[in-house]
Amino acid sequence: MATTSADRIAIVNAQIVTVDKTATVIDNGTIVVKHDGSIGKIGAGRIDHDATEVVDAGGAIVMPGLINAHTHLGMTLFRGLGDDMSLEAFLARLMPAEIRVLDYDAVHSGTELAALESLLGGITTSLDMYYMPDAALKVAESSRMRLQTGTTFLESDGPEPMKWPDRLAWVSKWLEQPRDNMGSTGWVAPHSTYLLGEDHLRVIAELAARYEARVHVHAAETVGEMKLVADRHGGRTPIQVLRDTGLLGRAVLAHGVHLTDDDIKLIADASASVVHCPASNFKLASGIARLIDLQEAGVNIALGTDGPASGNDIDLWIAIRLAGYMQKTMAANPEVLPARDLVRMATINGAKALQLDHVIGSLEVGKRADLIMLDPDSPSLTPNFDPHTTIATSVTRADVVNVMIDGEFVVRDRECLTIDKQQVVRKVAALGKRVLASVDGD
Ligand SMILES: [Zn+2]
After folding, report:
1. Ligand 1 centre and the CA of 303: distance in Å?
2. Which of 13, 183, 289, 355 has the fewest beta carbons closer than 10 A?
3. Which of 113, 66, 96, 156 has the alpha carbon at shortest distance from 363?
4. Full-prediction pTM beyond 0.85?
């Protein structure tokens, strides 16, 4: 139907947690979403608009969509396959199973299930690292979840059997394609400095520089990794290797658990981001990241779930809570990492890591309307004296009622509108049987 109005939807009676620079909260607020998917107006009380659809938030918290800054979405297929074991033992079980089971359709199904889980839980943007990223981008297109991804580099062939020169040609072609309408520069994803040698890392750095691509890489996750990297790279730390190979300045570093003082300085000087993944770190007993020291050094810290095979769920609310509680315990000081900082880590800091903070990550006029609306009648969110505290300590995925991306609802009344739940759950359950059969006899 043709329309002459500029406004599409007005969300009224909302407690708007904007996550702007001064952490403004607007009680009884209105957000007007324009037809182009951007936020047209935002403010207290009634605001003039000509939207045909008005959604009453019932006084509930409305906040920016969560940004999952490190994940492997397609890994839902392997959820629960290797638990109660070390990262090294887990990878030894996972990687052969991936080679046996993964193809384009399997990655598509696994990613679609992950997108469903993400959207229902309030995650609107993900930085993904997985094989056959074209399959994940297809899911992003149909589900409307924002997805940033790049090609993965291992030294071995992995599930994408491809010789190194062929892989480089593929990646170049991939990076030449236009990415999205948000100005993303594209990504390359060298898995880590323990699975890649210096020569390969340097080639990837040259490629990233040529295409101005960002680098998504695991770094300093476990003590075992530190030893492997030191042995392989002449006693250096993963961060030193990334600096020496020219990758650090473009990097989003997943984990960053075992960092020296010098590493933290290098990360800060390079303006790299660290993605803290507490659920994965604690489950694998990888260690506790030095978030307070990173914060003091001025490093941008975002949050991630890691892959659902190591995470195991894709729940960023849990990550918010674990991050805060563990740092307070470690510092023996409940004042560190206050709720406002934790909310920023799950939203605007993720956008900064992705260099998309000019378009997403907070609710401000001109930005894209990526937002979530919580349940106004949730028992566990009542009363709600300080919404930042409520978000950091009480909200769960069950409290997410509506989710909007680019001005359109993708979840309404807790139902995902863009993914057929029954179909994808059945598909992945069937694939799970194949996964199990592939590891029988290991
Ligand atoms: Zn990971």
Report:
1. 12
2. 183
3. 66
4. yes
DSSP H helices, 238-347, are: 238-244, 261-270, 278-283, 291-296, 316-331, 339-345
pLDDT given at position 397: 98
Lowest mean pLDDT among 87-91, 202-206, 385-389: 87-91
Which of these, 178, 254, 238, 250, lies nearest to 210 by C-alpha position? 250
Distance 311 CA to ligand 1 centre (A): 9
The structural domains of the chain, with segments of one domain joined by +, span: 7-65+370-416, 66-353
**CATH class as words, domain 7-65+370-416:** mainly beta
Question: Could you tell me the distance, in angstroms and rounded to a whole number, from the CA of residue 203 to the centre of ligand 1?
Answer: 22
The rounded Å distance from CA 390 to ligand 1 centre is 28
A 10 A CB-CB count for 283 gives 17
pLDDT tens-digit series, residues 329-372 = 999 999 999 999 999 999 999 999 999 999 999 999 999 999 99
Q: How many angstroms does the Cα of residue 69 sit away from the middle of ligand 1? A: 10
Tell how far the Cα of 387 is from the centroid of ligand 1, in angstroms: 30
